[in-house]
Amino acid sequence: NDGFLGQPSNQTLPVGTVFERIRSEFGRYGSPLNTPFVAKSLPPSSINLPLSVYEVIKPINNVLVGKISPWFGTYGGGIQYYFKYPVKTYLEEGFLKLIK
Asked: How is the chain split into domains, by residue range?
């Protein structure tokens, strides 16, 4: 279920939405800014990887949004965004701005 607990909803992320992503811009997942690490259900080895922060500057359609399933011995429960394309694509096409 792409890491979702239950059924995600298909949403449009509005301008001004800020989210974070651990690892490179080639992935498709993100979480709202300041989501606790344990709520993201990532492998423990990811805790020291770089964290990037992005801001939506043009609305992004067809983003799956929902609660994160528990995994890797963590609780999950955070919110995740699953993008149709890698984050890099949205950066290149002017939908996102890298903040950090």
From this structure: 9-98
